[in-house]
Design goal:
Largest sheet: 3 strands, mixed
Distance between the termini: 24 Å
Strand content: 5-15%
Shape: globular
Number of helices: 10
Strand order of the largest sheet: 1-2-3
Low-confidence stretches: 156-162
Structural class: mainly alpha
Number of strands: 3
Length: 213
Amino acid sequence: MEDVTAVCARTEHALGEVNRRDGEAVQAIVDWHPDFAFTHMFHICLERTGSLPSYQDFRCFAEEDPLGHRMLGGPARTQVSSVLAEGVPPALARAAMRWRIGNAYYSFLREIYTIVQLRMRGVDLRTHPLADALFRVDCWAGRAALSLRVGNKKFREGAQYGRKMPTERLLGELQPPLEFVTIELRPATVFGRVHLPTAEDLDRAAEMLLRMR
């Protein structure tokens, strides 16, 4: 737990000085997905470095490690070049890519923090990049699938699906059925700080998961 907390404290701000308006201004980058899922890349980085990466560690992996460059550094530069060719100003294209990757990093860090916290509360959680990338299952315990998200009406908030298909829709017809638990955080109000679930959020989720055993 100390390692996760330390990374949250020392990581470079993953969004830099980018504001939301600029970060979401280039649709071709907002909708961009590298061939390797972000969650896969973060886990590979963790395995190769031997520790939970700060944002600056991950940037180094993407730019200097041959595998990281193949998975993200190179494709990200190619996508930026593509939107520049369409007339997008360079500063705006770079800001949009920083926003895209930075938010993916924060999501990963939030998931690791949540998994560690729930395990400390006695929940025998499992996680796998494929479950996350294909089915939006951040982790699971038995036949209970947990999803973690920050409320965002554009992507999904509450019962509004937005652009992201929820886990319940993807896996709702499995037999025997799964049970679904969601931790939905309110949008962040403090810029420059990792947005994490509260102790109350975690206690509530742990209680539900333990009850489903």
